[in-house]
Structure formats: structure tokens, C-alpha cells
Specification:
The protein is α/β, with parallel strands linked by helices and 128 residues long. Helices cover 17% and strands 35% of the residues.
């Protein structure tokens, strides 16, 4: 019998700069702020965001260790967004000044995709 784990509750990211992170995820990508929690005992700020039904928790502190940030580095995961038209989104990215890698075709689906990066170089994917 397979486990029934339901749906993914949230995705969590670590970041280092509150203003840059909030600007990127809220002002540029369009996430809605659900709550901001200053956690003095942990020396960080927790920013709860939402897009559609998906929640994103971002923990912001300058105490996190650095790690490789290339999308395909060993052990590293990334957040992927499914979009209807990659060309339309990239046109908006150009307008907003969000840099991204050259578009390529996914090896399996043969659909266009690319990676872009948040202010802490966290890899993010766009997949059509």
C-alpha cells in the first residue's frame, strides 16, 4: 500500500538579504506576502509567501553557510515554475532586468526551459 502524503505543504529557501529577496520574489516574481516573522532567537526573518495554492517560506539571515548554486550541482535542488509561454515570460524578464540562461530543450519532454537565479544565486527554473 502506497503512502498518501497529500500535496506539498511548502517549499523553503534560505536567503541572505531581506530587501533584495523581498523585492525579487514579491515585486518582480509576484508572490504575495502572507506574513513576516522576525525571529530574534534564531537571528533571522521568516517571510511566508504564496503564489496560487503554493507556499514559499524564505528564511533570511547572514549566518547561513555558502553552498554551490549551479542548478545541476550535486545535492542541490531548485524551484521550477511551469509557464504557458516561456517566450512571454522571458520578454517580461527582459523588461524587469531579470537575467536568465539561454533557452534549451528539456532532454525528456523536448519543451523549452531555462534557469534564472535569485539574489543569493538560488537556481530557479522556467519550464513550458
Amino acid at each position: 500500500m502506497a503512502l498518501n502524503l497529500g500535496v506539498i505543504h511548502h517549499i523553503a529557501l534560505n536567503a541572505s538579504n531581506y530587501e533584495a529577496t523581498r523585492h525579487f520574489y514579491v515585486d518582480l516574481l509576484g508572490f504575495k506576502v502572507v506574513r513576516k516573522t522576525v525571529r530574534a532567537n534564531k537571528h533571522d526573518v521568516k517571510l511566508d509567501l504564496q503564489m496560487g495554492k503554493q507556499e514559499l517560506e524564505i528564511f533570511i539571515s547572514d549566518n547561513f553557510p555558502k553552498r554551490p548554486s549551479y542548478p545541476e550541482a550535486l545535492g542541490l535542488r531548485h524551484l521550477a515554475f511551469k509557464v504557458d509561454s516561456l517566450a512571454d515570460v522571458l520578454q517580461e524578464f527582459d523588461r524587469l532586468g531579470i537575467k536568465y540562461e539561454p533557452v534549451r530543450l528539456d532532454d525528456i519532454t523536448q519543451r523549452p526551459m531555462t534557469f534564472f537565479f535569485d539574489p543569493d544565486k538560488q537556481p530557479l527554473e522556467l519550464h513550458e
